[in-house]
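Can't attach files on this board, so I'm pasting raw text. These are the components:
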Amino acid sequence: MVFFILVVVVLSIRDIVNMKSKGTRKDIYVYLVIMLLFSAFGIYYLLNPDCRSFAKIMLSLAGKDG
Amino acid sequence: MLASREKISIRQAVILFIMFVYSPSLRLYPAIAARFGRQAGWLTPLISVLPFLCLIYIMQSLFKKNREANLSDIIFKVFGRIVGSVLLFLYLLWTMVTLGIYVRYFAERFLAALLPDTPLTFFVVTILAATFYVLQKGIVYISRTAEFLFTIFTVIFVVLFLFIVKDIKVINLFPITYHDFLPLLKSTYSNLGLWGSFTPIFFLGDKINDKEHIRRFGLQSAIYLVIATIMILLQTIGVYGYSVIERASTPYVFVIKSISILQTIERIESVTVVSWIIVDFIAISFILYIIACIMKSLFSLSDEKPLLSPIVIFAYTFVQYIAHSRFELEKFLKTISVPLSIIFGFVFPLIILIVGKIRKKV
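---
Top answer:
Structure tokens for the assembled complex are below.
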């Protein structure tokens, strides 16, 4: 978990510094939203690794879970 | 000579597509062709190539007046911003799930064949880190590498086929009667799911030069795929028969393991596994970059490269979340992923073309 957050922070800083040098403010906002969303998903999964898998959810939605 | 060093040729794009379908063709296709088509399963590529030819003509028509555009631009042009964004978002979800499947199968192959006691995350982190590093330079480097490796893979593939030829039993491939036609149609479904991956390469459209040659290189890829797929099926169904192949988890490796040259050189499958790893690396890089390009178009951004980091972060988690076991993953793939691939690969491009023609946008 700590390693995961560390990687997210390091990558984000690197990308934002790169984007800032190109002067694309909108890109930075969109990037931050996407990164936060995916990181939140990652943290949620790492805290609940035994939750129902994506395949299981989709199969049950399609009625093929049996 | 390419107009820009940042762009790839349509030939390179088609090679990327062939390498993208190479790995799942070996993994998935022989078992499904054997299950549905039985002894006639090796003929399925001859049927599934027909919709693929239609797809090539659809793509050529879409880009006839829009040579500098990518598929996202055409979707926006045809459907407008709102409906176009919804369709593009659906494509984004599909490609992200496809990325998860590819990376997971990459790791599963190692766990099943080589290093069973290693944690899954080790393989996931390794492949994602490697692709992330290489993609920092853009798709051009991956395309050139793929172009170079493509020849080597073709040679390896043909040589392995020649080693197997003597073991192919005609009785496993015949008789074929008109009763086999319906089972053959059924078995084309997985092949179509794979060949539908021709569509996503055009999300890189603005990075592809000479799109007036889509038909030419598309037809060449169709011929290559039909021959290669028939060779894969002859090697698998032809050697062990459909009843064995439909139960095997990795039929191709299973067959390659049986190769013995002059009864001294054995374990040739290591060559296949190595080539498989490199192909997976190119396929994962390719789909990762396509996702970044779709996101760039969807959110009207100026550059796709910074998006690679969040996608890699997502992939790391999603690969573990997608399925708890290989069995679950395979069921998901056959039941949901393949039909969706047909819809996204064949049906949506056709709808885009029809609506575009009606609205005179393409």
